[in-house]
Amino acid sequence: MSKPMTYKGYTASIEYSEENECLVGRISDIRQPIDFRGDSVKDIRQSFEKAVDSYLDHCAERNQDPEKPSAGRSVVRVSPALYSVIALAAKKEKKSVSTWMAEVCKKPGKKEE
């Protein structure tokens, strides 16, 4: 079983980009989209840590509280077909499935007439 990359309580979601031929990552479990990249595991780790530190420094400079990562992981079970649709929608928006799902769930619903 693999262990996720973490730093100062934040977790990274990392994928390989064939288009750019590098590793690309995003800080998971927060709404603020923070992306980073690297050519090796060592590079992606350094980029991830730099992204977290930059985010925390930016918040401190603006006297804002940084968004805290969620405390735990949640699992939502859906059919493989529905997951494929969700994954495609998330990919089109260049987001992880978890980030996309969280944003969709936070959108206010339409009132029925």
Descriptive account of the structure:
With 113 residues, this protein is α+β, with helices and mostly antiparallel strands. It folds into 2 domains: 1-70, 2-Layer Sandwich (Double Stranded RNA Binding Domain), CATH 3.30.160.250; 74-113. It has 3 helices and 4 strands; from the N terminus they run E-E-E-E-H-H-H. The protein has a 4-stranded antiparallel β-sheet, with helices on one face. A hairpin with a 4-residue loop joins strand 2 and strand 3. Helix 2 (80-92) crosses helix 3. The protein is globular.
Question: How many DSSP H or I helices?
Answer: 3
Radius of gyration: 16 Å
- N- and C-termini, Cα separation: 49 Å
Estimate what percentage of residues fall within beta strands: 15-25%
Q: Specify the structural class.
A: alpha+beta
Shape: globular
The CATH architecture of the largest domain can be named as: 2-Layer Sandwich
Briefly note the CATH topology name of the largest domain.
Answer: Double Stranded RNA Binding Domain
SSE string, helices as H and strands as E: EEEEHHH
What share of residues is helical? 25-40%
User: What's the level 1 CATH class of the largest domain?
Assistant: Alpha Beta
Q: Tally the beta strands.
A: 4
Which sheet architecture does the biggest sheet show?
4 strands, antiparallel
Average pLDDT works out at: 84
Count the domains: 2
Task: Give a quick rundown of the structure.
This protein is an alpha+beta fold and 113 residues long.
SSE order and pairing:
Blueprint: E1 6-7, E2 10-17, E3 22-28, E4 35-38, H1 41-61, H2 80-92, H3 97-106
Antiparallel strand pairs: 1-2, 2-3, 3-4
